[in-house]
Design brief:
The complex is a heterodimer of chains A (379) and B (291). With 379 residues, chain A is mainly α. Chain A has two domains: 21-52, no CATH class; 59-310, no CATH class. In chain A, 69% of the residues lie in helices and 2% in strands. A two-stranded antiparallel ribbon of chain A has the order 1-4. In chain A, helix 2 packs antiparallel against helix 10, helix 7 runs antiparallel to helix 10 (262-288) and helix 8 packs across helix 10. Chain A starts with 19 loop residues before the first helix and ends with a helix. Chain B is α/β, with parallel strands linked by helices and 291 residues long. Chain B has a single domain (43-289), classed as P-loop containing nucleotide triphosphate hydrolases (Rossmann fold, 3-Layer(aba) Sandwich). Chain B contains eleven helices and ten strands. In chain B, the strands form two sheets. A six-stranded mixed sheet of chain B has the order 6-7-8-3-9-10, with helices on both faces. In chain B, strands 2-1-4-5 form a four-stranded antiparallel sheet, covered by helices on one side. In chain B, strand 9 and strand 10 (268-273) form a beta hairpin. In chain B, helix 4 runs parallel beside helix 7. Chain B is globular. The chains are: A mainly alpha (379), B alpha/beta (291).
């Protein structure tokens, strides 16, 4: 080509992992989670104004698990444009793997003083079923927490994406898969405790589970995981990999004709997203003390999508904010006006769809932009 | 074997080899068929054809979109394709790029690559770039990011995760930005570009892929006269280095750029020649004006 190349054409530099302001906020969040919250909960006396109650710690810990799910949902829905209504399944799978370990940790302290978990004694089983083989090992449990949701997501995703199943069809199939899994886990003979699931946990790593220190430890662990996943997600979406994902969302045919095969891209982010949900589930179970097939119900998976939508899709901070807003409202409303909660959730989703297509974060951005333009006009 | 048969054979061989010795074949006198190594993924154009379609048939629910289409394009050629709506122009591009599978027929890229054995990303990597009728760019990404994604490089997941633009690639990107007159809009979100600019960005993305063959579906639709003139200029500079297949309705544009025009009608080739020749063709006038 004859066009001369201008030497002073500035190509934009690759974006930093976090901006300076972003890093400051990140470090503040880390300090709050790892230092401020434990001090306020464990050392400030209960009567004090600054005391963080056990109830608040339990609630915030739970919401941080949900925030991980919302972040995972954002990667697959917000950035790749694939709406999954099956993330509740991956969450529950991670939870069940953790639950099995916690059940084995009960040891002989159950109601029946048996080596086997109570529900197995109740069913008159004599030995552990094969899929409980690794449940005694904490290391194996840690591996399985990501491996089980990961492998299931990979296999399911491979066939779904290879068949080029898209949009609402994909959403329906993920929903159906979750429902099928729920029915499976409800059955007593599959060895997952039937509709009661797993509960009455006593120990984790041999240490009692229901102490304030352990609760705080799990809280800190959840917070650090959430922040770590945030960085991971940020690293993914700001790489060229992340831009290919957005390109798949906006114009998949152009991606293919640019020489990219969308299948491995979709499969990678789908599997990563499922693994993140599995970790969230595993952190959730010891904090709430129960896991049952209800976690796989349709409503749970849909709620994850609602958190992401309310906070703002395709921004990483949005879904986290959304999870806090919706679940904060939920715990407040289910106490003050339990019968209105579902109406509120429905109205919220409609309002966000109609008025806030970019969620709360989008609204804040818009207001900020407006403020700067009016400021500029005033000067 | 009788002596007369041997003589006959020798005479035939002489007849085949004579033009080659004089350099009158399309491959410039080389004995193209003999003792060459076919390199996988490499386009072999020694037979003087970069794209070769023969007797291709496609039907959708009984409607014959492509009906016995045969067409070939030489390396470095700029071919214009015209034809009334529904003639099968876009379907033909779909077949070449792997989007649609023909019911019957052969489609070759060079003389060794059977395009029917490859899917869309593979065909794109082999060196066929395609611009859609409706400009298709990644609207949420900036002009720079659009071009960067199209860049010819490893396109696997892992290499994308750790990708960094090197200086040769940056130079190439800057060069293309100038070529498509978007150097002033590097960081602009491509969704906010004008229609003509989007068309250019898409052409730029094609060029980033460094394709050997470009398929361009209505590249100047929605462009101003000035933009159209610039596009024509661009295509003329591309000719020779790349092969181009341009589908257009704008006859003025075709007159500026074309050497050879193919008229498609009802899924097969109706006429071929210079624009003046095909415009004088009775059958072409008939399908365009209708009787």
């Amino acid at each position: 080509m004859t066009t001369p190349t201008s030497p002073n054409l500035q190509l934009p530099a690759p974006p930093p992992l976090l901006t300076r302001g972003g890093w400051s906020a990140f470090i503040v969040a880390l300090i709050v989670v790892c230092a401020v919250a434990p001090v306020l909960n464990l050392w400030v006396p209960a009567g004090s104004l600054f005391h963080l109650s056990d109830y608040a710690v339990a609630l915030l810990g739970k919401i941080m698990c949900y925030a991980i799910c919302a972040l995972a949902m954002d990667l697959i829905w917000g950035y790749t444009g694939i709406l999954s209504l099956g993330h509740g399944l991956f969450f529950a799978l991670g939870g069940y793997v953790m639950g099995m370990y916690l059940m084995r940790q009960i040891g002989r302290d159950g109601n029946y003083q048996s080596d086997l978990p109570d529900f197995m004694v109740f069913l008159d089983w004599k030995e552990l079923p094969w899929h409980w083989a690794l449940s005694d090992s904490f290391v194996a449990t840690l591996v399985l927490i990501v491996a089980v949701p990961g492998v299931i997501a990979f296999v399911f995703g491979y066939f779904a994406f290879r068949s080029r199943i898209k949009g609402v069809y994909f959403s329906i199939i993920t929903q159906a898969m979750t429902y099928a899994a729920m029915l499976l886990f409800f059955r007593n003979e599959t060895g997952f405790g039937g509709n009661n699931g797993f509960t009455d946990f006593k120990r984790i790593l041999g240490m009692p589970i229901a102490t304030p220190t352990m609760r705080m430890l799990l809280f800190v662990l959840t917070g650090v995981t959430l922040l770590g996943f945030f960085l991971l997600a940020r690293w993914l979406v700001r790489s060229k990999f992340g831009r290919v994902l957005q390109a798949v969302r906006d114009a998949e045919s152009r991606v293919m004709f640019s020489g990219y095969s969308p299948l491995p891209y979709k499969l990678t982010i789908w599997t990563i997203s499922a693994m993140m949900c599995g970790v969230a589930g595993a952190l959730y179970v010891p904090q709430v003390g129960i896991i049952n097939p209800g976690e796989m119900s349709a409503a749970n998976s849909i709620e994850i999508a609602v958190w992401a939508a309310v906070g703002g899709r395709s921004t990483l901070i949005g879904p986290i904010v959304g999870a806090f807003i919706v679940n904060g409202a939920k715990s407040w409303l289910t106490v003050t006006a339990p019968e209105f909660w579902l109406y509120f959730l429905g109205a919220l989703f409609i309002a966000v769809t109609l008025f806030l297509p970019d969620g709360v974060v989008g609204l804040v951005k818009k207001l900020k932009a407006k403020l700067t333009t009016t400021k500029g006009a005033a000067q | 074997m009788t002596p007369d048969l041997m003589e006959e054979g020798a005479r035939r061989l002489q007849k085949t080899l004579a033009p080659a010795a004089l350099g009158q074949t399309e491959s410039g006198g080389r004995a193209a068929g003999f003792s060459r190594v076919a390199v996988p993924g490499e386009v072999d154009v020694t037979h003087g054809r970069i794209l070769y379609l023969e007797d291709v048939h496609v039907s959708f629910d009984g409607f014959k979109a492509i009906n016995g289409l045969s067409l070939d394009i030489a390396p470095g050629e700029l071919r214009c394709i015209i034809g009334p709506n529904g003639a099968g122009k876009t379907t033909m591009m779909d077949i070449i790029t792997g989007k649609t599978r023909p019911d019957k027929g052969t489609v070759f890229f060079g003389s060794t690559i059977d395009l029917l054995r490859h899917n869309e990303p593979e065909i794109a990597s082999l060196g066929i770039g395609r611009k859609f009728q409706k400009p298709t760019v990644f609207e949420q990404l900036s002009v720079f990011e659009n071009l960067e994604l199209a860049l010819k490089t490893h396109k696997g997941v892992k290499s994308s995760m750790f990708f960094r633009l090197d200086s040769a690639q940056s130079d190439r990107l800057a060069e293309i930005l100038h070529t498509i007159h978007l150097a002033g809009s590097v960081t602009r979100q491509s969704g906010n570009l004008s229609h003509g600019q989007k068309q250019w960005l898409e052409i730029g993305m094609l060029l980033m892929q460094d394709p050997k063959l470009l398929l361009l579906d209505e590249p100047v639709a929605g462009m101003t006269d000035e933009e159209t003139a610039r596009t024509a200029e661009l295509f003329l500079t591309l000719k020779g280095k790349h092969s181009l297949m341009v589908v257009e309705h704008d006859m003025g544009f075709i007159r500026t750029i074309s050497e050879k025009v193919t008229v498609l009608c009802d899924g097969s080739v109706l006429a071929e020649g210079t624009l003046d020749q095909v415009q004088a063709d009775e059958r072409v006038i008939e399908v365009y004006l209708g009787r």
